[in-house]
Specification:
Helix content: 25-40%
CATH architecture: 3-Layer(aba) Sandwich
Strand content: 15-25%
Shape: globular
Largest sheet: 9 strands, mixed
CATH class: Alpha Beta
Number of helices: 8
Strand order of the largest sheet: 1-2-3-5-4-6-7-8-9
CATH topology: Rossmann fold
Number of strands: 9
Length: 378
C-alpha cells in the first residue's frame, strides 16, 4: 500500500498526520460494492498543541464539526486553533473515499447521493459524544456544523433534514449552484441522469485546462512579479513562501475526475437548494467578492474564487433559512487559505458571530471573549 494512504485506529484516538495536538480515529461504515468503507474523524486537542493560541479556554463550550470539499481533506490547523480560542471543540471529518479515509481500491470521492453522508456524520457525532462523556461532560455540547465548497452543500442539506440538531451552521464558499447557474442545470440534468443510469462511474468531460485554484495555493512566484504591499509584512506565510503544503494523493493539484453518478448527486442537491431550504439555526456564509473565469493565470486570482460563481452562491445563500448572515471577502475559493489579512478578517467575523448566536439556556454567550489581536498560526 502506498505510503500516502493513512489508517487511523478504530478503537482509540491515534496520532494524526498533522502532528502534535491532532488525533485521528477511523469510523467503520457499512461496506459498499467496492469493499470496506470508513470515515475518519480528526480531533484537535489544544492542551497538547504547541501552537495553541493564548487565551484558549481549558474546556470547550460547544463543538464544531468541519466538512471538507471536493478533492480535499481536513488540514487547516489554523482554523482548528481559532475555533478552540473561540471556545469550541474542533473536529474535522474526512468523508468516505477522501483524504485519510481513501483506500487504494476505491473510486476517489464517489457517492451517488449526498444523503449517504448521513452515516458518516452520525458516526462522527457518536464518536464526539463518546469522547465528551469520557471527559466528564454528561450533557451534549451545542453543535456547529461547518462546511467548505461541496462540504458546504452537504452540510446545508444535512441541516435542512435534521431540524433541531444544530446550534449553528457555518459555510465557507459553499457550492450551492452550478457555475453556469440554474438555466444550464435544467438543460444538463436529463443528460447527466441518463449517463448516470447507464454508467454511473463514467468520467464526464468537464473542467480540464489549468487548475488555477491549485496554483493560487502556491506561494508567491517570481513570475508573479514583486510581492504586493498587502503581503510584504508576511514573508513566511504560506501565501508568500512555500504555499499550503498538502498530500497530493488526497488533494490533487491537477484536480480529479468528475463521474456521472456523483455529478448527478450534486445537481440534484442544487435543485433542492434552489427551491429554498428551511435551516432552523443561525447560518453564517462567507464567500469571495469576485469570481474569475479567465483562461490565463494572473496573480489577482489569489484573491478571487476561481471555482464558483460567487454571485449565484450569494443568491442561493439567502434562501437557506430565516437567519442568514452573508459576508464577502477578497478571498480565494477557500477563505481559510487566503491572504493573511483576509483570514484575520474571517476569523474576527466568526468570533463575533459565535458570540452573537451561540447561547446557553439562560441567554449567556457560549463563546470566549474575542481576542484583541487575531494571530495567524498556519
Amino acid at each position: 500500500m502506498p505510503a500516502d494512504y493513512f489508517f487511523a485506529p478504530t478503537d482509540h484516538w491515534g496520532d494524526d498526520v498533522l502532528g502534535a495536538g491532532f488525533y485521528a480515529r477511523a469510523l467503520p461504515l457499512e461496506p459498499d460494492e467496492e469493499g470496506e468503507v470508513v470515515a475518519t474523524l480528526v480531533r484537535h486537542d489544544p492542551e497538547t498543541d504547541p501552537e495553541k493560541l493564548p487565551g484558549t479556554p481549558g474546556e470547550p463550550r460547544f463543538n464544531v464539526l468541519y466538512l471538507h470539499g471536493w478533492n480535499d481533506y481536513f488540514f487547516q490547523k489554523e482554523l482548528a486553533r481559532h475555533t478552540a480560542r473561540a471556545g469550541g471543540g474542533f473536529y474535522g471529518l474526512d468523508l468516505r473515499k477522501y483524504g485519510r479515509s481513501l483506500r487504494e481500491y476505491q473510486t476517489f470521492g464517489y457517492v451517488d447521493t449526498l444523503e449517504v453522508y448521513d452515516e458518516d456524520l452520525h458516526a462522527a457525532l457518536k464518536a464526539i459524544r463518546a469522547y465528551d462523556r469520557g471527559q466528564g461532560r454528561e450533557a451534549p455540547l451545542p453543535l456547529v456544523l461547518m462546511g467548505h465548497s461541496t462540504g458546504g452543500l452537504t452540510a446545508a442539506m444535512w441541516a435542512d433534514r435534521h431540524p433541531g440538531a444544530l446550534a449553528g451552521l457555518v459555510l465557507n464558499s459553499p457550492w450551492l449552484e452550478l457555475q453556469t447557474a440554474a438555466s444550464i442545470r435544467g438543460i444538463s440534468t436529463p443528460i447527466v441522469q441518463q449517463v448516470a443510469a447507464r454508467n454511473p462511474k463514467r468520467v464526464l468531460p468537464l473542467g480540464g485546462g489549468t487548475n488555477f485554484y491549485g496554483m493560487s495555493l502556491t506561494g508567491w512566484l517570481e513570475s508573479d512579479g514583486p510581492v504586493p504591499p498587502e503581503l510584504a509584512d508576511w514573508p513566511d506565510d504560506p501565501s508568500v513562501k512555500g504555499g499550503w503544503q498538502t498530500n497530493e494523493l488526497w488533494k490533487n493539484p491537477h484536480g480529479n475526475a468528475t463521474r456521472a453518478g456523483w455529478f448527478h448527486a450534486i445537481i440534484s442537491a442544487h435543485a433542492v437548494v434552489a427551491e429554498g431550504l428551511n435551516v432552523d439555526c443561525p447560518v453564517f456564509v462567507g464567500a469571495s467578492v469576485q469570481s474569475s473565469s479567465g483562461d490565463v493565470w494572473q496573480p489577482i486570482m489569489r484573491r478571487q474564487d476561481t471555482v464558483l460563481d460567487v454571485h449565484v452562491i450569494a443568491l442561493r445563500a439567502i434562501g437557506l433559512g430565516r437567519n442568514v448572515q452573508l459576508v464577502r471577502y477578497e478571498s480565494k475559493h477557500d477563505i481559510t487559505l487566503s491572504d493573511p489579512e483576509v483570514r484575520m478578517e474571517f476569523y474576527r467575523d466568526l468570533y463575533r458571530w459565535y458570540d452573537a448566536n451561540l447561547r446557553d439556556e439562560q441567554g449567556r454567550t457560549l463563546a470566549a471573549d474575542e481576542p484583541a489581536e487575531i494571530k495567524l498560526c498556519p
